[in-house]
Structure formats: C-alpha cells, structure tokens
Structure to design on (217 residues):
C-alpha cells in the first residue's frame, strides 16, 4: 500500500520543486491539499506520478509540476479573486483556494463539474465555487486578479485578458502540437497588456476554442 505522506513529499521535492517551483506558499498549498482525494479510485495509485492522470470524460489532471508552475507564475495573493477555466477534478482550484481570497472555476462537462463540487466539499475548499459553463461565452471586463486556463488556446483569444483587473495576471498556453508556448499576460492599464513567454509545453485545447484553418491540398 502506498505511503501517501511520503509520496506527496516526493512529488513536491522531486517533481514540483525540481521544475523551479520555489515559492514556499505554492509548495505549502500543494502539500496541504490531498491530491489523492481528487483522483478517481481506479487511478489512485497514480495520484502523485509525474504524468497527466485520467479523470473521466476524456479529460485528465495536469502533471503536478505544471500545476505548480502555473500557481507560481500567477503569484496569487490572499486578496486575489481567481478564475480557473477547466475545473476537471477540482484539485488545482483547491490549491489556488489555499492562496487566494476566492476562486471561481468554470467547467463545461456536467459530470466533471458535479464530481469536482463533491471533491471540493469533502476537502473543505469553502472559498471555491464551480460553475457549469462554456468558457467561450465569457464576456466580462476587469473582474479577476488572476486567471488560469488549464486547457490551451490554438489561437489566442483576448476575451480572457479583458477579464483581468489592472495588475491582473493570466496564465495561458497558446499554439498547436507538437510545441506550444506558456505565457503570462499582465493587464498593465486600461487597454494595455504585456506578455512574457514562460516555457514550452503541450496541453489539450479548450473545447470550442478557435482553431487555425487546415490547409487542403
């Protein structure tokens, strides 16, 4: 039987910290949230593995080191209101909830939204809410301090950067396989944003996100 506490420490030290996630608040949040409680029972032994773990409906949890990098990049503070796009199991939202004032998470798939709500309730993530919604219908301005997209955008969509307050940060992965770019977009003023390239990765696209036209020969 797996030693959960040992496996969690190994995950944090050998995967998350080893991928340059050094923010102690982020590491502590990931240590406090029981990742194994958000993984389907049939995949519980993979909860701390360096891989995307299936959660049903053709979806998966991101690898722990990627979730750590996202949280660190967003530099979430205790006063922040956070938006997550793609609730999945609810684990990332629970970690963000350890860092933020409130987390609002959007999930397109009803079964995943229901399971995430149950996971979050069982683990007392009381400052996290889950909304069943298509993120591509989002149309708000200046509402969030930090936004994390846990699915990629084949074509960058500015609707998410507009949802940031001034000083707010957006984590987004843009592009198509085999190489995509993780970016941090910061709203620096009214109608002004800056973009920093973070790292290369691969992430499944958000459903209903715009895609580049295919060439037909």
């Amino acid at each position: 039987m797996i030693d959960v506490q040992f496996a969690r420490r190994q995950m944090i030290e050998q995967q998350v910290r080893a991928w340059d996630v050094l923010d102690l608040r982020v590491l502590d949040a990931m240590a406090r949230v029981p990742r194994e409680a958000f993984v389907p029972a049939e995949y519980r032994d993979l909860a701390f593995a360096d891989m995307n773990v299936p959660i049903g409906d053709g979806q998966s949890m991101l690898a722990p080191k990627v979730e750590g990098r996202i949280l660190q990049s967003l530099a979430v503070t205790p006063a922040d209101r956070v938006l997550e796009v793609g609730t999945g199991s609810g684990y990332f939202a629970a970690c963000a909830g350890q860092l933020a004032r409130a987390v609002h998470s959007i999930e397109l798939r009803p079964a995943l939204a229901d399971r995430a709500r149950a996971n979050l309730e069982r683990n007392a993530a009381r400052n996290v809410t889950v909304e069943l919604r298509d993120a591509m219908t989002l149309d708000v301005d200046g509402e969030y301090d930090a936004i994390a997209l846990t699915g990629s955008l084949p074509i960058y969509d500015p609707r998410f950067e507009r949802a940031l307050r001034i000083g707010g940060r957006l984590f987004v992965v843009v592009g198509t396989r085999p190489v995509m770019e993780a970016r941090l977009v910061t709203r620096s003023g009214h109608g002004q944003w800056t973009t920093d390239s973070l790292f290369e990765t691969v992430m499944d696209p958000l459903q209903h996100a715009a895609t580049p036209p295919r060439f037909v020969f």
User: Anything to note?
Assistant: Helices lie at 4-16, 24-32, 64-74, 91-99, 110-122, 159-162. Residues 4-201 form a domain with the Rossmann fold fold (CATH 3.40.50.150).
